[in-house]
Amino acid sequence: ITATDDIIGKKLIEEVKDYSVGEFQSYFGGGWGNYYLVLFFPEIWSYELFEMYLEYKVNPWSKEGNFYSTDYESYEGRKNYAEECAGGYYAARLSVLEKIKEQKRQNSSLVLRFITPEYNIPLGVWVCREAARKSLDSRLSFSSQELMLKYATELIKNKFGFDLNLLLKESKLLNEKKEQKRLNEFG
After folding, report:
1. Which end of the chain, N or C, is more open, meaning fewer C-beta atoms within 10 Å of its C-beta?
2. Is the separation of the CB atoms in 87 and 5 below 8 Å?
3. Quick check: 162 and 155 in contact, CB under 8 A?
4. Which residues contact 168 (CB under 8 A, 6 or more apart)?
């Protein structure tokens, strides 16, 4: 299943790289004890997934003993398997790419998976794909990154009592956005 998600995802990535960039958008939802917050930024394609069990001090998948697991890919793509998030990475990525294709707008995508105690029997990566798809049914648009991130942190604090800033400060996608200069900044 993961190989199929990856193959289809790679084909979609080739396609979405030709789209013009989208806008700041936030999505939230899920199912089966798996909730996804998906943040779209008006940038060229990149993707990052964070996964965390809300009741665990250490994520069982984290190779570094963190309370979360994470994997990232830049515009150039991945060179190796997403070790931390494994199949869930490719399942959620496929859902995100389907939404981008539907909108015909390219985005960088920061995806945060919150696993609640409702999810007490692992059911496989299909849960990740379908819960991510369900989360992409409800969209909010924002005029700036600051407004979107403020909304996201308040949403997660109210829903789960969790400080989203703990993950946002670790985000490679967000940190690269801070460091990378845009062409229009030279002049």
Report:
1. C
2. yes
3. no
4. 149, 153, 174
Give exposure, 120-132, as e/b (b: 16+ Cβ within 10 Å): eeeeebebbbbbb
* Closest of 28, 12, 10, 6 to residue 101, by C-alpha: 12
Distances from the Cα of 134 to the Cα of 20, 49, 127, 169, angstroms: 25, 16, 10, 26
User: Between helices 125-135 and 2-16, what is the axis angle to 10°?
Assistant: 30
| Rg of the chain, C-alpha, whole Å | 16
Structure-block tokens of residue 143: 């005029």
Contact 113, 71 (CB under 8 A): no
Neighbours of 174 (CB within 10 A): 19
Q: Three-state DSSP class for 63?
A: coil
